[in-house]
Every structure is written in C-alpha cells, then in structure tokens.
Design brief:
Length: 166
DNA sequence: ATAAATCACAACG
DNA sequence: CGTTGTGATTTAT
C-alpha cells in the first residue's frame, strides 16, 4: 500500500493505493491547505501506479470543479462488506449534478427498509468524491451527514449546481 | 458465537 | 416536534 499526495485548489488529498487499485482517498486536514509538504519522500512508484495516480488526480480535480471525471483508476473495494460494495456500486451510478435519497439507494440494493444501513455504508465509503456519497440526501432534501464535514458536502453540491434544502 | 449499542433515515401522530 | 420501525456494523460479553 503506497500513499501519494494530490495537489488541488482545496488542499492536498491523499490517495492510498493497494496493488489492486485505489483503495482510499483522504480529504485534506485543513481546507485552506495547499501547504507545501515538509519534504518530498520520493516514493518509489511503479509505472502502472503512476498511471493510476494520474487518472486519480484528473478525476479528483474534475469532481472538485463540479464536472464529471472522464476516467477513473481501478478501485480496490475489497475492504468493504458485501452490502457496502452493493451500496457503493449504486452511488457510482448517480450522475454529476443529480441526487438520490438514502431510501432510493436502499431500494436499489434490494432492501427498501435498510435506509439507515445505507447511511452507514456511505459513512464507510473509503473513496469520497469518486464514489459520490455527497450526492445522497435525506428524503426531505436535508443534507444528512458527511465524513469530510457537512460544509464540504454542501460546497461540493453547490459546485455541481445542486440546491440543498435549508 | 451472541447480544447490546450505534447510526449520514423515514414515516407517522 | 418526539416516537417508533427498521438493517448493517461495531463493540462488548
């Protein structure tokens, strides 16, 4: 597992790769971010990993700008449970600028009553932004929650042109 | 292995 | 508004 930084206008994201693909994506600790790192570790990266990382960088920057990523690196979701992977697969079907409710996702994975469990799966999502858990709102349009902070979720939706209920 | 506690929901009175 | 019905995951026996 190797970790590579991604410089963005919102700060430095951290991408964690297993040998199967992108396994996790961490938000910058602080929003104002973009602080130069103390020292470049000069990690040893394979050619394939570098290719993945280039795709990740482009995808993250597109998502931050409210645009749909052109391509994604392979995602390593092996850490998730069966149910979580089903939920995450549904999340990836949500188009940029669109939203679903937790209930919609629950129905889509076959358990219309498992709405709360869906919320749990969203919170366990290791790759926010590329797996767009921020496009999932409560049934009445309320924002719900977000692992990276509610204001971050609101801002992402705003950039995609989505109005959130007050 | 089993049970209780937790949760980023939803529906109802 | 508070309550209650839910299902998966996590934590504690």
């Amino acid at each position: 597992m190797t970790t590579l930084p991604i410089e963005t206008s919102d700060g430095v994201f951290l991408a964690h790769y297993s040998d199967a693909g992108l396994a996790a994506l961490g938000f910058p600790a602080s929003r104002a971010g973009a602080r130069p790192k103390p020292a470049a570790p000069a990690v040893k990266v394979s050619a394939s990993l570098r290719a993945w990382h280039r795709l990740t960088e482009r995808a993250v920057n597109a998502a931050l700008g409210g645009r749909a990523p052109a391509a994604l690196p392979p995602l390593d979701l092996s850490a998730g449970t069966d149910f979580q992977r089903r939920v995450w697969a549904e999340l990836r079907k949500i188009e940029t600028g669109a939203t679903r409710s937790y209930g919609d996702i629950a129905a889509a994975v076959g358990n219309p009553r498992a709405v709360r469990a869906v919320g749990g799966a969203c919170g366990a999502n290791p790759i926010p932004l590329l797996i767009p858990c921020h496009r999932v709102l409560a049934a009445d349009g309320r924002i719900g929650g977000f692992s990276g902070g509610l204001d971050r979720k609101r801002e992402l939706l705003r950039r995609e042109g989505v109005a959130v209920a007050g």
